[in-house]
Design goal:
It is a single chain. The chain is of the alpha/beta class. It has one domain (3-280): NADP-dependent oxidoreductase domain (TIM Barrel, Alpha-Beta Barrel). It is built from eleven helices and ten strands. It has helices at residues 25-38, 52-62, 82-96, 113-125, 139-147, 167-175, 197-206, 210-219, 232-239, 248-255, 270-280; strands at 3-5, 11-13, 17-18, 42-44, 70-75, 101-106, 129-135, 155-159, 179-183, 224-225. It has an eight-stranded parallel β-sheet. A two-stranded antiparallel ribbon has the order 1-2. Strand 6, helix 4 and strand 7 form a beta-alpha-beta unit. The longest helix has 15 residues, at 82-96. The radius of gyration is 18 Å and the shape is globular. Keywords: NADP, Oxidoreductase. This is 2,5-diketo-D-gluconic acid reductase. Substrate binds at residue 107.
């Protein structure tokens, strides 16, 4: 598996397995084991996904040496703040059954970001976390965090797919040496993603699926990807993207699909921010 070097020297696989929306313990554990058997060595979970225990059990049962697996989890906004963040981290580590974490992310750009980041910096300096980063941060919030803190985020995980390509955010991350990571690389199937004519036509050229074309497109943009599936055949399919290369023409045609709009929600929408705050109170 090809790896990317983060801004602190830590290496992570360019393609991992995400477990969002797999809250069922048995299904999640089975899926993570299938992913590890297929060759994945990066697993992305979160406190809010309610499946850290299943991920931890799968890693333990797999028998794969701990140092070979890159594990990411995230701090949820209800536990933002210096003291609460440290307690939440300890709880996540207990569920994951790990001695150290590879990557810890602020899940949302709301609430007490700075108190939480201070706690994460200390955990990083203590060797309990190898790298710290953020998720869903727009460029202005990302640069603000960088300017006023000791440790810059190693990675920013944001919604990215052919329909929402995040060119501006990508450029800023490149400038500040923050790794771009995609969530929802398939737009969760919205807007008939899997039957899109442009992606389908390109896939036919390489005998690849629409999903594989999307993943390959992001890898060629230097974006880390974490596709999710609970179907064993698709789990295997999603990692089979290193034996072909999209042409400049393919890349240009996919670029034309950009709508510049989220398929889910806008983190800058005041109503969305208010809704998120309601999840804490």
């Amino acid at each position: 598996m090809k790896k990317v070097k983060l801004n602190n020297g830590v290496e992570m696989p360019v393609l991992g397995y995400g477990v969002y929306q797999i809250p069922d313990y048995d299904e999640c554990k089975k899926s993570v084991l299938a992913a590890l058997e297929a060759g994945y060595r990066s697993i992305d979970t979160a406190q809010a996904y309610q499946n850290e225990k299943a991920v931890g059990d799968a890693i333990k049962e797999s028998g794969i040496p701990r140092e070979e697996i890159f594990v990411t989890t995230k701090l949820w906004i209800s536990d933002y703040g210096y003291e609460k963040a440290k307690k939440a981290f300890s709880a996540s580590m207990e569920r994951l059954q790990l001695d150290y974490l590879d990557l810890y992310l602020l899940h949302q750009p709301f609430n007490d970001i700075y108190g939480s980041w201070k706690a994460m910096e200390e955990l990083n300096n203590e060797g309990k976390i190898r790298a710290i980063g953020v998720s869903n941060f727009f460029p202005d919030r990302l640069v603000d965090l960088i300017c006023y803190n000791e440790i810059p985020p190693a990675l920013n995980q944001i919604e990215t797919n052919p329909f929402y390509q995040r060119e501006k955010a990508h450029k800023v991350m490149k400038e500040y040496n923050v790794q771009h990571e995609s969530w929802a690389p398939f737009a969760e199937g919205k807007s008939d993603f899997f039957s899109n004519q442009v992606l389908s036509k390109i896939g036919e050229k390489y005998n690849k699926s629409v999903a594989q074309v999307s993943l390959r497109w992001m890898l060629q943009r230097d974006i880390v990807v974490i596709p999710k599936s609970v179907t064993p055949s698709r789990i295997k399919e999603n990692i089979d993207v290193f034996d072909f290369q999209l042409s400049p023409e393919d890349m240009e045609n996919i670029q034309k699909l950009d709508t510049h709009k989220s398929k889910f929600f806008d983190h800058r929408d005041p109503e969305k921010v208010k809704w998120m705050a309601g999840l804490v109170r």
